[in-house]
Amino acid sequence: MMRGMGNMQGMMKQVQKMQKDMEKAQAELNVREFVGASTNDLVTATFTGDRKMKDIAIKEDVVDPEDVEMLQDLVIMAVNDALTKVEKETEATMGKYAKGMPGF
């Protein structure tokens, strides 16, 4: 009977360690910066791993008051590129913790 309790305690320690490792990995991911870019780097957007925009840079030569739609498209392209990079890195970093766990 005690043998089963020892296994349960060991499993609980493993779960607690995994939880701490996950929290540390998430914290490290949150402070990393990801830069997304539009065509020819005319617009770049910088996000942190927790999906907060830190910066957006627009090259002067792309600013055309007669073609605001193009600038909007370039901004959307850069933002989406950065968020895609955040998502891929989040999956690569945090996905390993969910493998083999039911419900994830």
What's the structural blueprint in terms of helices and strands?
Elements: H1 2-31, E1 33-37, E2 43-48, E3 53-58, H2 68-98
Antiparallel strand pairs: 1-2, 2-3
Helix pairs in contact: 1-2
Q: What do these coordinates show?
A:
The protein has a domain at 32-97: 2-Layer Sandwich (Ybab, Chain: A). Strands 1-2-3 form a three-stranded antiparallel β-sheet. The longest helix is centred in the last third of the chain and has 31 residues, at 68-98. Helices cover 59% and strands 16% of the residues. Helix 1 packs antiparallel against helix 2 (68-98). The chain has 104 residues and is of the alpha+beta class. Homodimer.
- Sequence of secondary-structure elements: HEEEH
The percent range for strand residues is 15-25%
| Widest beta sheet: strand line-up | 1-2-3
Mind telling me the CATH class of the domain at 32-97?
Alpha Beta
CATH fold node name of the domain at 32-97: Ybab, Chain: A
Roughly how much helix do the residues carry, as a percent range?
55-70%
**Count of DSSP-assigned helices:** 2
Largest sheet: 3 strands, antiparallel
Shape: rod-shaped
GO molecular function: DNA binding
Protein name: Nucleoid-associated protein UC7_03236
GO cellular component, one term: bacterial nucleoid
Subcellular location: Cytoplasm, Nucleoid
